[in-house]
Sequence to fold (185 residues):
Amino acid sequence: LNGKPMSVNVDSRGRYWVFQELEPPTVFSATGAALQSAGRKGRGPGEFQAANNGIVVGDSMLVFDWMESRATMIGPDLKAGRAIRIRSGLGNELVVLSWPNMLMSRGYFNESKPAHSTLHRLSFAGPEMQLLGSFGPSGTGGPMGNVDVGQIIGRARDGIWSAYWNRPEFTKWDRNGVAQLTLTR
Fold:
């Protein structure tokens, strides 16, 4: 590894993807043998500046490069495919409900309605990520204010679970961003 590890993900073939600070992801076999980097360092197609996270989409990995404001689909052959423009404020917590039309994320977007909402419904169907709607608890504004309010803690049937970081309250949200159940301890 050439950089500080930021996250690890396992693809549909059991390969480990290690995402490093300021490096392209490195892919390891299911037994731990280093295979290769997915892409290389740079700013062009199939290149990465800061690929700190990825999500499994079918047999591929969607790799997020925050410095380039881009997500790149890497196929099972480890070759770069489709690129999608992402927006500043997209959080690392992403849940795929149905690819590419419905994903949910935590983050901060200036255009969220209601203002300062911390959870968002997204589409990656086009060349640019679309904000479909926002919901959930309100932050205090700005990226740091929203980061501390809540987090996605898991997938629910056709939705997500969220929790506050500072109190024992868990909420189940459906795919439309409507609260279905709240558990408080």
